[in-house]
Amino acid sequence: MRYGDPWADAPGERDPLRRLRGRLVLPVTVWLANASGTGYEVGLTVSSVLVAQGDPAMLAGLVSPASELADVLTSGPSCFVAHVLSAQHKRLAQHFAGELPAPADLLTTRPSAYGPLLEAAGDRLLCRTVSTKPFGWSLLVEAEVAEAQVGAAGKALAWWRGGFQVLPAPGSAPPGAGRDAGRDADARRDGDHPVTR
Questions:
Q1: Average pLDDT, 10 consecutive residues per value, the chain (197 residues)
Q2: Digit-coded pLDDT (tens) for 66-102
Q3: Which residues are registered as beta bridge partners of 129?
Q4: How far is it, in rounded angstroms, from Cα 131 to Cα 143?
Q5: What pairs with residue 110 in β-bridges?
Q6: How far is CA 169 from CA 51, 84, 87, 155, 175, in A?
Q7: C-alpha span between 185 and 196 (Å, rounded)
Q8: Domain ranges, ordered by start, for the chain
Q9: Beta-carbon count within 10 A of 95 CB
Q10: Would you state the pLDDT for residue 172?
Q11: pLDDT at position 138
């Protein structure tokens, strides 16, 4: 889900915790599941995600408790597929965040025992839900990772400072990455200049 721009409020009204959280660079994933007994697919863009190696490997994520996905994952034994998105999947991220519809070819899925697999996104974690519980204003989902599928490598997509951002390839510097440019960007985002998106 989109959480909005942490810098959109007037400087004196900004929540320090929300501003600090907005400075964390988060991954962008899309979780898909089947609504039990309906054949209906539900999905959500999720950025608060952790993956831990182990036996079994585990995934934890925060989802909106008001989402259809939350309803499916809390209604009993459930499975889902977490797709890790790359730069070319930005439109998918926007679609499942409810921002901008994606073209039909990007939404093509095929079935699996754990849920729908997006054909366009080859990096996937096939998961079995272990527990769900309130976590702040979100729902914490903990799941076992039954299988990890790795697709072709590409530039990373991240959620940062209120928007989807494409990260530069490893070893390359982002545009305007000089020390002064970074300081100027911080000044703009901290309210010295209007922020537009």
A1: 52 80 92 84 96 97 96 93 96 94 93 96 97 96 97 90 85 54 41 28
A2: 999 999 999 988 999 999 999 999 999 999 999 999 9
A3: 143
A4: 7
A5: 117
A6: 22, 16, 10, 6, 12
A7: 13
A8: 11-166
A9: 19
A10: 65
A11: 96
Q: Give me the CATH topology for the region 11-166.
A: Pnp Oxidase; Chain A (2.30.110)
Compute the distance between CA of residue 66 and CA of residue 74 in angstroms, rounded to an integer: 12
- Among the listed residues 100, 128, 62, the one whose alpha carbon sits nearest the alpha carbon of residue 92: 100
Long-range contacts of 19-26 (CB under 8 A, 24+ apart): 22/160, 22/161, 22/162, 23/160, 23/161, 24/160, 25/158, 25/159, 25/160, 25/167, 26/158, 26/159, 26/160
> Hey, CA dihedral for 65, 90, 128, 39, is it positive or negative?
positive
Q: Taking the CB of residue 82, how many other CB atoms lie within 10 A of it?
A: 26
Global pTM value: 0.81
SS3 for the chain is: CCCCCCCCCCHHHCCHHHHHHHCCCEECEEEEEEECCCCEEEEEEECCEEEECCCCEEEEEEECCCCHHHHHHCCCCCEEEEEECEHHHHHHHHHHCCCCCCCHHHHCEECCCCCCEECCCCCEEEEEEEEEEEECCEEEEEEEEEEEECCCCCCEEEEECCEEEECCCCCCCCCCCCHHHHHHHHHHHHHHCCCCC
pLDDT at 21: 84
